[in-house]
Amino acid sequence: LEGLEQKWMARWDADATYRFDRSRPRAQVYSIDTPPPTVSGSLHVGHVFSYTHTDVVARFQRMRGKAVFYPMGWDDNGLPTERRVQNYFGVRCDPSLPYDPTFLPPDKPPKQAISVSRPNFIELCARLTAEDEKVFEHLWRYLGLSVDWQMTYATIGPRAQRISQLSFLRLLQRGLAYQLEAPTLWDVDFRTAVAQAELEDREQPGAYHRIRFAVADADPGTAFIEIDTTRPELIPACVALVAHPDDERFKPLFGREVITPLFGVKVPVRAHALADPEKGTGAAMICTFGDVTDVIWWRELGLPVRSVLQPNGALRPVTFGGAGWESADVPRAQQHYDQLAGLSAVKARVRIVDQMKETGDLLGDKRPITHAVKLYEKGDRPLEILTSRQWFIRTMEHREALLARGRELQWHPPYMQARFDNWVHGLAGDWCVSRQRFFGVPFPLWYQVRADGSIDYEARLLPSEGRLPVDPSTDVPDGYRPDQRNQPGGFAGDPDVMDTWATSSLTPQIAARWEEDPDLFARVFPMDVRPQAHDIIRTWLFDTVLRSHFDVEALPWQHAAISGWVLDPDRKKMSKSKGNVVTPMGLLEEHGADGVRYWAASGRSGTDTAFDPGQMKVGRRLAIKLLNASKFVLANPGPHGAVTAAVDRGLLASLAVIVRESTDDLEQYHYTRVLERTESFFWTFCDDYLELVKGRRYGDQGPDLAASANGALVTALSTMLRLFAPFLPFVTEEVWSWGHDGSVHTAAWPTADEVLAPCGGVEDPRAIEALQFATTVLGAIRKKKSEEQRPLKTPVAVAVVRAPSALLALLPSVEADLRASGLIQHLETAEGDVLDVIVTLAPVEAPVPERTP
RNA sequence: AGGCGCGUAGCUCAGUUGGUUAGAGCGCCUGCUUGACACGCAGGAGGUCAGCGGUUCGAGUCCGCUCGUGCCUACCA
């Protein structure tokens, strides 16, 4: 078994075994939207797991005669790569710089990061990821993925950029993408907007603070509204108080005003149904913006903006007394606020609590709680909501159409559709696709700069589609000169890049070369399958359906094959941070690719699977067994002819059933059953059938019956090899090569008719019974030998087979095989209700005394 | 809090539309070098199918409830 991976991965490459035949029409193509792995990370056992599932199906479809479109993408777009390139080369991206075609990074990263233009930065990314990709490709080849390695793409490559930009421009033209200055979820560390899909909730400690607001039209010190807040530092950003419209406690106050503590700003008391009388005091403070509910209240109640947070998460300087910042006591407000300006939200919270303790506006002590807080999934600090100019793709008004797409898609397993529906129902706003980062696909447009130097965001300058891809930080819009950049009367490039999902969601279009190679596109799109894990249904799957719905008004694929996770023995998801990751290459070297694939293929669609090296060992043993059994079948096979003997016909008849079921199951993506069934058949083949026919195939019953055995053996082996081929590509190819010129992986998938052909096309259920009967009798003989702890070669003096007459009628057809394999000296029969075998072993021979020399 | 899974042998898991005595592999125990294989072969022990109730001639399987567990979504004053 050793060395099969190197031998065959080189051979498959040289022979172009997995090359996509693009001359085939769509109906003869099976196309796969392969997930592009993130190259700045490392591949782990979870990748090996899920990519094996895809490969099993790909190999099956190829053997079924389909031209398999199986590309590989590399995800080198986005923050992980941005960080890695910065550290590796010691550079930092500055999109304001012009491209320097001569730039080369120093050998060692300097202490002070070098600023480079965005195109230079992207070049460095391509350089670094090219090395990562080589390592990845080698692992994939070693695992035996039947990818067409001539068809690779990168999510930051020119094709991906062009298609991302093209799709965006068309969405813009159709009003499906729009720009808006609006409150947006914002990460203060990455200093970028983020999308709903990138949020995660984390439990964080917090505290309720009870604060009182004086009623403005009451006598000072006589009337207050109390509220609870976890974010007292946002009191200066308070624009109103709110309570439920039916809440009797606050009804008299609606429409009146209160005065904010410390800052003396008058804010109205308003009513809104979202205010929960059960929460806190029943009244809440509306700030711009403390959470998403604030945004809803602010919008629906038509409140003003009074923002205090800056993009870096610190409180900005504010001058009280000006428009929007009128105060009853400007010097006092300013004095309090100046102590907060420049502080982070957390520090400002501590400071303002001290201030309110002094003034008596804080009632009682703070009450610590633990509450769920929204964070960017890659971030460490809670998200803020800041008003900024962002690009959005419409989702909200297309929810019904998207749900319909979800129903149209065939999910494996079907219940995964619920996650999609769940997500669509829970959408809170359109998809924010712009990021204030450097490394990514730029938005392909510029704006006119007014005479006063300000940017006119309404006056967009769009490139023609033929110019794409463009980088507006270095490219110049048509009709302008480079020296007009950022000049009055000139132009300014859009500074943002797209969310990585905005590109990843186009993988079917990128791989199929949408609007670039219409011939190829027509042959592979919409694709057959998207394989992916369940955790990114809300991102990758949803976004891809959305984009395809807009771009081509179709589903991007017919099937979604959802894989589970690999869990460590403690049932936790295996992950790098938990330090329990096993390197895939080590596993492949230890257990062999076939062994590892055997374990991976045991994980059903959607089901999380325990990491289990024991199963890899089992798979490895299966591969070895396959080599040995094949050696027996193929070594000195003798002539093979018509399959006439009952056990031989029984073998092929039961194999025909396996073939039929396996084909149906693989069509349904139920690959685990196929492996189980084939394996089970194979062990019965080895342990029972081979033992029954061993003597006969050597000629003990004459040439005709030897030819029957050989015919069945060769047919069964050929069939089993092909059934195993999608799962164990290396060992099956090795064995196949002993008797064939071509690859087993391009051989035809077996059919029941083909298996039955040596039996004259007859599928004889009586033959199956006969084989089972013989196996049962043989088992009883073995059991007796085992119980008496005698060697298996011990002869059977007498075997009495008691059985119903219908079974006994089968005995003559298998008697010779049974006598030979069981070493039966005398065989007797008797009628009985149930099958029962009484075995008497030959007496133990007296040991032959050793001769003294 | 809602949604979707899962709970079967010590471990990892099968168990199709309800139908004889609930299966496999690993591990464990006992033997055996049988003309491909000791990286092997044969045999064995081991289960109140999470619990309770219901439908049915019949329930691991269908229905309801409970418990445990995991994920998805939400909850953030």
Describe this structure in words.
The protein has 24 helices and 30 strands. It has 853 residues and is α/β, with parallel strands linked by helices. The strands form 10 sheets. Strands 9, 10, 11, 12, 13, 14 and 15 form a 7-stranded mixed β-sheet that branches. Strands 8-7-16-18 form a 4-stranded antiparallel β-sheet. Helix 2 links the parallel strand 1 and strand 2. The longest helix has 27 residues. The protein is elongated and about 115 Å long. The two termini are 45 Å apart. The chain binds one RNA strand of 77 nucleotides through strand 9, strand 10, strand 14, helix 6 and strand 15.
The gross shape turns out to be elongated
Gyration radius from CA atoms, angstroms: 36 Å
Largest sheet: 7 strands, mixed
Please provide the count of β strands. Answer: 30
Q: Average pLDDT value?
A: 92
Distance between the termini: 45 Å
Point out poorly predicted stretches.
Answer: 848-853
Q: How much β-strand is present in the residues? A: 15-25%
Q: Helicity, in percent?
A: 25-40%
Question: What's the helix count?
Answer: 24
Helix/strand-derived class?
alpha/beta
